Amino acid sequence: MRYFVIGLLFILTAVSAFAKDKVIKVGIQQNFPPYEFSSNNRIIGFNIDILHQLSDLFSYEFEFIQSNHDSLKAMLRDGELDFISFCFQSQTNKAEFSLSIPYNMVPYGIFVPYDSPIETPQDILTSTLSIENEQIYNMLLQNNNFSGTLNLNKSHTECLEEVLARKTDAAIVASLTGKYLVEKHSYKEIQIPPINFRNLQYSCAFPKTGDSLLVQFNEGLNILRETGTYNRIYQKWFGEIHPNQVTEVQKVVLWPFYLMGALIVILVVMFVIQRKRYLALKDLKEKEIMIRHHAEKSLFEYRNAVNGIIDHLPHIIFLKDKNNKFILANKALAQLLGTSKEILLQNSSESVQLNVNMGHLIDYNNNSDELNSQKIQLIDATSQLRSFEVTRRKFVRPMSSDQILMVVAIDISRREKYEQLLKNEKALLSSLIKSIPDLIFYKNTQLEYLGGNTAFKDFNNFQGDQDFIGKVDHELFDKQTADQYLEADNEIIKNRTKIQFNRWETSPNGDKFLYDTQKVPIIDKTDKLIGIVGISRNITKQATIKQQLERAKTKAEQSDKLKTLFLTNLSHEIRTPLNSIIGFSDLLTDPDLTDDQREEFTELISKSGGSLLGLVDDIIDLSKIEAKQVQINKSKFDLSRMIMDIYESIEDSRDQIQKRSVQVEYYIPGSEEQPFYIVNDEFRIKQVLINLIKNALKYTTKGEVKFGFDIENSQVRFFIKDTGLGIPQDQQSSIFERYDRVHSFESFGGSGLGLSISKKLVELLDGNIDFKTDELEGSEFFFTIPLDEESQKQQSEQSEAGREYNWDNITILVAEDEQNNFMFLQETLKKTGAEIIWATDGNEAVKAVNNNPNINIILMDIRMPNMDGYQATKEIKKIRNDLPIIAQTAYAMSDERDLSLQAGCDEYMTKPIRPKKLLKKINQLLS
């Protein structure tokens, strides 16, 4: 009965071909791959292919209207659509619309962030979920076991974006659609657990009044299934035939509808078919004669054209059949073999006299890969050695199963000759360029380096061409340097003219050189700019000599001015106290003076004498230093005590220097009661400190002056910091020169010798002196002197003895299988206050990290049962990549350290473990 119905439908379809196609409006969803979606301005998908087959079956013309699901339902209710292609089999939809038989199902899956703990459907019962399907949304709302939160969205993309933004724990969307969107938008932070949450069947939805179209649609689906068309479409989009697809088939009795029409139409159809067949055969016979004549003529012309073309080619081309007979050959092959083209085509290759090395080239049965797309050398009929690039291919002859051998051999002998000449010239030019001591480099128009000579690579510390070729300046140099190079290169490209400039360059090892650089454009014979070449010559020596001459001249002129100023200042400094001494001495002879006045004048005379004596001492010290008569007398003394003595001396002289408004502080590392002995010249160190402190007090009117010392890198670092007047930028370079003064003596007085004397004394002590300054915030002078071995040892012992660790808020995981070793580590860490967790093997260590997020550091034994330290480290780093791990092992092999670091350990220690070293290493990692 069914085949009878199918036959009737076929007849009706044939008849309807003469009628105008009916346009049916179909509503489809905008973006629901792979079921129905847009790609490259085309509407495609599984549902679309099904509808196209039904269109061909019933001669309907479908007009697809895209919108979201809710809009499509509203349009179907208002009569704007004939049916919707995609509607789930729910009770609501069944009550509102007439649904076709189900013709596919949609598997729904769960999409979660990459680090989500959700692995089974039960895991989502307490989660926040984004759901696109209203049917699944209602199902979860009615589930008594579900206690989470549901968000109903309009699209799959919105659901996935909420997961990506961590607004929800998971999204339940169509599996295939979700995978397509994850791949399309590169949602790398979303993973898809192997959970098939639920399968939903869907149908086409028709208005309640559209029964005739629904009946045709259902029968059409049955026909597609029985003819295998449905399975082919399903395989195209999903790759397999799902056993549960289209489980419902509605039996529709159609013969009463078609029987009457068939009796009327069958005679008309038979007449039309026979008439069309007769006319078609007649027309076909005439066309066949014309086509055959045209084809024979075209084939003849084509063969002549092909033979003419290949004969004029300088390359070898031929075809051979399986009997080793030439089907096609050109004159180049005949000349190579020393015969004619006609002889080749009339005889097989066995009858042609061949050179020994040519037979394997033209032999049909030679399947060697050596001749396939390779370069070979052959001796031709004139005994000349020639090079060829050979390509051999076999293909099946049209209209038969015979294979044909095609060989194309391109003669590259002349090309190889010129290439060798070019290589020789290039090698000569390269040798010349490499031997030039100037820096030579060249770039393309994209300003990428194409090469450079040996001097250029050595200066920039390039190990090979791969370090700079193909790169631009911003990949090789700092931004400031690269910007300057780019500006110059852009000017050359824009104006096509050379430029020249001098620039100080810094090599990778820190040395600075002055280079005279010329950059010129490279222009080919067609007047096209193809690159830039640069040549840099080292002119540091010439520039240095010139600078030294200019500096010497300037210094001589400045020294002359400073000497004059110094003498003027010195005269003032000497006359001022002498004036006080002479003047008050004369006043002392007055008999009417009171005792208080005499005491005051005497004190003023004493102060002026002290100032004059200090000035004389400075002049004598400077003279001794310049005459190299200063002796350094080293002895053991307490540096801390010396600092405190200087402070007390400054405090005692506060009234004399009139600096009561300036606060003076000192700094000593450690405790004041703890002496710090060094071996050096106490007098000269004290002299330098006092000079610098007085200088700081002189230029500080308010704020503070702080001085002291600290230990840095086996050196004592002394510092004097003030909040007074800073040093102007233009005078900082000459601050330690004799006679030089930053501020005028009229305002502050002094001889201007203090800093110069201090610098020379520090240098005699094998030290260095420098300063930092800010014109608004003040200055800091500091100098260093080396520590002797005994002082270094004392400092180390004090540092180690005084070091304590307070790790009350730190949790340490100890992975150790030996209890004695664990007890040792526990005792070592006991005084720090840290919380200790013990894991006896690698598995327990991994579990401890999973269960305790407060662990701050791990002591990992390498050799443990069940899971060793290497594997445990790798697993822990997957969980917490930033968690520091110290490897511990008693097997101090040469590769143990490398293996530990490769596994992810941050530090490595060998047993036996020294407590101080362990605590120090833990403290470094924690901080």
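the 2nd protein, sequnce then structure:
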Amino acid sequence: MLASFSLARVPQSSEVVGELATYAELDASLTGCELLPRAASWSWFPGTENPSEDEAWTKSSFDVSGWATGPGPFGYGHDDLGTTIDKAAKSLYLRRTFELVDKTRYRRILLELPIDDGYIFYANGNAEDRLHAGKPEPPATFEKEASIERPLDMPPVPVVDLTPMLREGSNVLALQVLVHASDRESMGAYPRIHALYDRSVRTEVLADRAERVAAQPRLAAYLAARTHQLEGRFEEAIEGFRALLETDPASPEPWARLLECHRAADRVAELEPWFEARIAAAGATPAMLDVFAEVALLENDRSFEDFLASLPSGLSELPAEGFFADALWAARTLTAGRPLFIDCGATQDHEADGRTWSRDRFHTTGVGIALPPVGPRAVGVGDTIRMGIRAATELPPLYRVPLPSGDYEVRLHFNGRNGPEAELSSGQCVIDVLLEGARVLRDYDPVDAAGRFAIDVVHFPIHVQDDFLELDLWPKAAQVPWLAGLEVHPVSPERFRTLAEEFVRATDRGEAAALFALGRAHLAAGELEAAHAVLEEAERLPSFQPDQADVLAEVRAALLPKLMSFAAVDDLVARRGAAAESLLADEGSGPLTTYLAGRIHQEAGRIDAAIMSFEELVADGSEASEAWLRMAQCLADAGLRPEAEGLIGEAFGLGVAPTTELLNLYISLALESERDPWELVAELRELGAPDELVCVPNSDEAPRTWKFTAIEPTANVWSRPAYEDFDWETGPGSFGAGQVIGGNARTLWSGDTLYGRMTFRTSAPRMLFPHFTVAANDATDVYVNGARYARVSIPTDGYVRMPLRSLPFVEGWNTLGMHGINVRQAGIVDLGLVQPLGELYRIADALGTDGALRLNCGGGEYVGADGTVWGADRLYAWCPAYDRTSEGGVAVSGTDDDDLFRACRLFYNDTDEASYEIPLPNGRYLVRLHFAEIEDASQAVGARVFDIVLEGETVLPRFDVFAQAGASNVLTKEFAIDVTDGWFDLLLTDVDDFGFVSALEIVAESGR
């Protein structure tokens, strides 16, 4: 049936699938296809002169008939070029028209661009991306140079996300290739467009691939089982892969897929006995033994002793490489009482310095590099770990070493070189080091620490509790990080304590990892109170991790009833649920014991009993906001929602602190009772509510725990609360990679994609003009309870707000989901939800003062010549600012306020997310949009044209500021609008070049 399916939606000539001769090639073809091969023809112009004035050569109207045409790749000094350019060219210009038939077919369209040395990329006349090209500037000339020398094979491969840039039909792609001054012997550009399929075409894709591999029985069988897997029919997929492995036991892909299906079907436990029976009957292959070791150590948490004892009998020849070989080496080494010595980048074991150094093992990413013997020898270190490194070119973790739970000293060797380039300078490679997800070394520069050609050894106490040691290197400068050697030593409790104390002193008590290690040492000695004090100190640091919080919770529980606070009780109950009832074994009395009893009743669903406990605290006049909050929650759960609202109002009247949770619940109850939202805004200000009321925290200041996976979920309901994510990983946000990492990124993210979900419970589903807080680079889709609510398609430059116009939350369990795309290994993704009360206060003030909200688009607060106050620009989404106020001399006619028009807010080409969305009271308004065309390149009729849409209606189609007002002249347009849904919407669409607005006025009917 699959083989007979016809791909009628899109002509197959628009997609290049390539040869399907291996399982890996078949797998790759299921997720995407090639839309423009590397050998495709482009028009090209040598950079011996400028191809046009300004950037006209990037526009669709430009005539390229005088340019040469040739196949890619392009350049000189490389052996595999399709078109060789004369070395006299100082740069290279490439252009071609790209036809896109059906954009909805693809979830991402990516331009892969291996480059030597840099580029500026344009799509449909707009400068969209640049690499090693310096900051944006007036149009680059043919003499423009790349800012650094970049080898063609330097990972990661540069990728441009074309998805938001392309439109269906004809698109013009243009590329200026740049060369670094010290690298005039080579130039290279290898453009290729690859697309990732949307889920909606999966059935069509599977049908097409089935037809292509029908004559290859093993590939056809593999595809049939993969089809069952992708459709969530795991039992059938397991049978299919098992049957295939009877005839092809040597290939690793069917084994890997079999393990995935067993995980998804929650049947991993049956794999070990199945392996043993199969090995006894038919022997074992290296691919099979790799999966066997992974199941034993990762899935079934066997100790190394148990792993060695469980090796199937009848194994004659053991593999020399692969995960099984590595695990066997580690198990035999540690059970013999010897430490692990791993020579990073090495390809074989060897003896040096009286130690046995293993070849490179347990690396999950990166590139092993052998270094030539340049420079003096490192004092006290032989060739062992000086002549090889593992460079963290893909991110991470870099190493994942299976280890029994226990205490270890980890020693990391760094050298002052990176690859064959010996002249690495201070500051070119700066990294953070993470062990077990915790930052142990911050802003470390191997060149500064070791000096060139020398070795620096750093060591840390690490407690392993999940059977794995994870090592991550985070890049924070231009060069990729690298590691020369790794040692792992089991240590005694006494040695661990000494190391922990040294670690705390070295970090001046500023790293949670150091304090956590010291807390562990106190626990090992039975010093609970000392452990509690150190762990609470760590809890106050931003680097405190969720797994460390679990240990703190256990310490708090062990110290009850001696140690109690309302916050500690909430923490314990949150982690233990109804099982926290065991904490009441020690009879006690007092407010905290009463509160603990109430929280346990509440968690167990015994609402009446919980109300009785909390009512006792409230009646006694408790000032603890937690008691009032829990009482109100229980009243709401009992259906007494007006009473719950009144109770919180009473609490505020008695001076109970307006905490975030109390305010969130109060707002939800007030909106449910149909209170006017702007009256509620005024009341919240009187209460002293903060400018930003957090509903779901992001991980900017403190880590939030997420479940995440890099594997596309088999069902499209992965962001619903009930979705079973038992096989997903757990880690703290935010997720990041590459040079965009700041102090807030806590889980490194590798690969092209990441799915994350955070499930939370709320009794406050109604919110006051809620906004997502999103950090995203390169692209992210945001989901709530199974539905997509927003798409981020351009970098956010930190955290930005996105309005959530509908209210998809329910009382009880909800899920936030994010699907991030990482197109150049420099991604970052994080998500939260807030109610921006400060913005509402400012809007209310502006409307209350003179009935008008005025914004200086693209600029800060501005006071006009007549005293009119224009507020700082805000409440925009995905619109970059353009500001020439610092240049001074741009004169603007028709105004005394030149600086008001020397900045503007730009709107991207055909990006529906780029807009102003401003909360406003319902009513009639006069909207004034102010413009002045100050950009020299756009001072021509037709150079900048766009539609203006207000409240969903196109009020100015094909609007051209220059055509109506000329250069640097003020132009104002007025429109009367009605706001009926509580939001004012301004959108610029169908944009040629960039749309823009210089200033915005929204005047209430009563304020005209």
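The longest strand covers residues 91-100. Confidence is low (pLDDT under 50) at residues 1-13, 372-386, 418-422, 739-743.
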